[in-house]
């Protein structure tokens, strides 16, 4: 099975496929030779090659690989690709499994890489294979473009590099200089701590530029040609491409010298720039082309006006352009990384369009003057006025552009003296901005370092603990409680700080499942917030009040408070909200009570808005929420894809409690419905870890997951034993549904208890379901679950048929299919022909959901009822039996040439979800590149 299409790179070639000599890198090559000499003596290590795009990192790696082979060293080469990040561990794994002499046990490693939940064993196996190879001789492992590597590759790389440091293995990795994803930044920090050697590539000197010019043009350059070559500013890739564009038409060889044939040539397109443009989404490409037509630097506000959009709507396109190394931040403006890049982009635009854009820009009214970036750069530590200006800008940007806001806040912190009284407040302002933009580990480290240093004063410490409590809500419920409780206990703090800390403490307790304690703290927090007149704390506490009502099964009041909380938070603005986002609770509440379509619409709007605004943390929280909703609606493939897309990063702080109660729970349920035992076992192992968590709700989720796994394995007695502790826990902190996660689990529990002979537990579950339905008569979904549970307990067809009818009014596909199957089972006991319609409808629903295990079970029931015809494969294509409908939609778009980003926009999905679908399709279809996939689509669609 192929795991990934990986470019096993050698040196970038020169013009016409002929490699030009390497110039100006004598010192770097000498250093590489020294490390290879040390490797020959048995000394391993890590070398990090760093530099901007086009500086020649890949060429240095290729020269090192060639030098190692000349010495007889075994070499493995791999490289990441920005379009291929959807295959975990692809760059590293393919690097050691391809080539002339791959590692032994290749198939075993590929199988482990393609199987969810096998990361631990994959690391162990890969480490063992490398140790075995190193015993037979020195190894050089080359990994290019670390900045494009997926999280699993990064984790595996730094884990193996550290764990195998005593072996004869030299790791040679290249990474782009400048801004890189947080996971890459963490990996670089870790390998530095492990003693990695740094090799920073700078611009080439004049002598090297002249020699390369002579290599490309075939003759020494005259002064005019040399001046033109120097416009590349020592970047080898731009230099070679610039000269190549001139060689055929603009340069002649006269008297042994290369000369310009007709004065200074017009700007031309450059291959590397064209490639980078082609990899962008349509929106980002349009933004870059518009910026090129403007010349020089340009503000986002100007681009927004030219493109007819809001500045917030450009956030994703701007970030994409920065990541592609086409644009760079220049204070509050955008500038091209290099003037030759701008000229190359502009050269690709029709002249009339360039002129029209320039005229349009000239006619725009002047906007607000941009901040003086140069002044900020010149400011020295202790410049309080400049720090205040940056903090004001950060506050203004926080709601719509948290990324730039975080950078301003960090700069303000840098300018604030260590003993300045306002420093703790600046730290507290910076932490949530870092968290919102996906830099949670950096945020936590900033707060922890400040607390450890001490000298903050009660108010300063309280504000930092409040920020850390907000951060911890996503990752560690118990830590959120600890930080908020410690902050609220500090003497002499303001009413506002105490009220907000108590509010966060109530949120943490509520999310932890400590409902009685949450209600008690919330009462105190309300008094404090009212005395301070703090509407921000009020919004958060209204969410807690909604959760308390939910726990008491007063769902009408829970909805009323959830709607009020979301409205308050929206009115206040997201940057001041304590719990981001309050609307998320409303979506979860809607889903749990059967208003699934409403919940899905809210979640998708949340994903869209937070994605546009660059609020990474909130987007992940929304994705986690949507996984639960998609599961309940029977969209198993989409639920699994969302869960994989939002999986915790390697540097996330804490165990990931929100992921525990969303992603991991969803992945187990999907695995059980699809009959994927291996994945189910992997997440059952996570559930065992969850069962010992400090937060009761996480323990309850883990317990229910283990009960489901035991039932899946045909062990109902063990399943009920798992649940006993939860179902006998104190009522005040017991989950609202007697240990269950969702109302639709009541019939599941009844079925499980009856199989185990635990009639009293079945009675308890039915009583709870019926109480919930009676207390909330306006929610037919709750009445359906109660009727379903009662029908199973009493073995009575009437309530089962009533449940089937009630489920028709809500989009809970799996719950409805289960009721149909149970009704069919009851009818089949005496009247088999009449059971067929129930079974066939259930079969169609299960098949549409992709619930293969349930489909197989119902087919057996149909055969027992005398139905011999082949059941239809609802929702699946005969030409693509391996793929789900969601995977097939993505495959067809990619085969048409769309990028992941473009496919995501077309399908209204996140790029991460598209990547997850595509990764699974690659594995199922046994293809390793987009080209192979496109060819396969062509063949199958033509009936070949």
Description:
The strands form 3 sheets. Strands 2-3-4-1-5 form a 5-stranded parallel β-sheet, sandwiched between helices. The chain has 46 helices and 10 strands. It starts with 25 loop residues before the first helix and ends with a helix. By secondary structure, the chain is mainly alpha-helical. A hairpin with a 2-residue loop joins strand 9 and strand 10 (333-336). Residues 1-18, 362-374, 730-739 and 871-876 have low confidence and may be disordered. Helix 29 runs antiparallel to helix 30 (616-632) and helix 39 packs antiparallel against helix 40 (813-828).
Helix % is 55-70%
Strand content: 5-15%
Q: What is the number of helices?
A: 46
CA-based shape: globular
Main structural class = mainly alpha
Report, as a whole number of angstroms, the end-to-end distance: 22 Å
Q: How many DSSP E strands?
A: 10
